[in-house]
Task: inverse folding
């Protein structure tokens, strides 16, 4: 799959082949990036052309808006970037910036609104650009290293990065569900 970035939220041509991208990345890192980029391409395609009203609409008092979900996707990637590449948790300043998007809920409903689509695309692109840059510095062994346990179960960095795009896919389902309801209104 071609490495791609999204500049204006427009779908780019993407090969549907998971393969080694180029010599900048190791083989397994390339495969992971192919899957992450494909996932992102489809996510951006699904929100193309949405208005600020559509991005901010809540379908009920407990739901998240499409805009909040897009920022959540960027926040999750940022949090895992910090965790895996910098081997730390987010600091107070980072939590101030990304916390509402990570936590969502009422805080997200109150604070994440009033932005045009390009705002969310720029956040997604900025985080992804840093992620791709740092993936050039690691190898397959780094991906497979077990560095944490969750409820007694070991998990490695490969699984963490799989979870980043798995979470995006789940939220894209929510986005599409909401989109079907708000674009008809």
Result:
């Amino acid at each position: 799959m071609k490495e791609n970035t999204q500049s204006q939220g427009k779908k780019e041509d993407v090969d549907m082949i998971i393969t080694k991208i180029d010599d900048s990345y190791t083989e397994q890192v390339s495969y992971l990036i192919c899957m992450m980029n494909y996932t992102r391409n489809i996510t951006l395609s699904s929100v193309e052309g949405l208005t600020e009203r559509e991005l901010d609409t809540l379908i009920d008092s407990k739901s998240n808006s499409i805009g909040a979900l897009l920022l959540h996707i960027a926040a999750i990637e940022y949090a895992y970037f910090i965790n895996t590449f910098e081997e730390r948790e987010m600091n107070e300043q980072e939590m101030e910036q990304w916390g509402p998007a990570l936590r969502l809920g009422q805080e997200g409903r109150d604070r994440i609104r009033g932005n045009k689509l390009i705002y969310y695309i720029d956040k997604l692109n900025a985080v992804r650009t840093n992620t791709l840059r740092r993936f050039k510095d690691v190898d397959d062994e780094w991906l497979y290293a077990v560095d944490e346990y969750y409820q007694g179960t070991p998990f490695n960095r490969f699984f963490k990065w799989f979870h980043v795009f798995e979470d995006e896919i789940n939220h894209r389902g929510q986005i599409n569900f909401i989109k079907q309801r708000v674009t008809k209104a």
About this structure: Residues 1-10 have pLDDT under 50 and may be disordered. The domain at 27-182 is CATH 1.20.120.450 (Four Helix Bundle (Hemerythrin (Met), subunit A)). The radius of gyration is 17 Å. The helical segments are 27-47, 52-56, 66-85, 92-103, 105-111, 117-135, 140-144, 157-182.
